[in-house]
Amino acid sequence: MGKYESPEYRVKEKEGAFEIREYQEYYVVKYKENEDPMISGGFQTLFRYISKNNEKEAKISMTVPVIEKKEEEVYTMAFVLPKEHLHDIPLPKDKRLSIEKIEEGDYAAITFSGVSSGKVEKEQEARLKEWISKKGYEVSGETRVAYYNPPFIPGLFRRNEIWIPVKRSKE
Hints:
By secondary structure, the chain is of the alpha+beta class. The protein is about 20% helix and about 40% strand. It has helices spanning about 35-40, 40-50, 120-135, and strands at about 10-15, 20-25, 25-35, 65-70, 75-80, 95-100, 105-115, 135-140, 145, 160-170. The radius of gyration is 16 Å and the shape is globular. The N and C termini lie far apart (about 40 Å). About 25% of the residues are buried.
């Protein structure tokens, strides 16, 4: 996905599809809803934000990935904000959107291709959690699903990831 900016990270450990990554801090514009954002229009709301529906009426570059997270019964979908806007982030006009700073930190990640579904994501999350434990880390936050491709890309060519914040186990 060379033409789209994404959060910067350094790979600390790699084993097949698994990685421990140290992410630098970054900002997202986040859509929050009580139902699945793909169904409720989260993507379109976020897309309108980067297409000038913000207080500065600024056009903001598309980035990857689109990040989803389920917090209890609340779904969130987020677009990463490009670094060029870091010191001057346009505020959203839509009240369902907010700007959030993602602190630097370590994440375990697993990359997989295909059409992502709840079942596939749960299987990949379970594989990743098993690997995290085997590597001497522990989960320190909520699971995120990262989508790198638009829906019209055939499943075989899609890149998806599960990200889980981690820290070293205290043994």
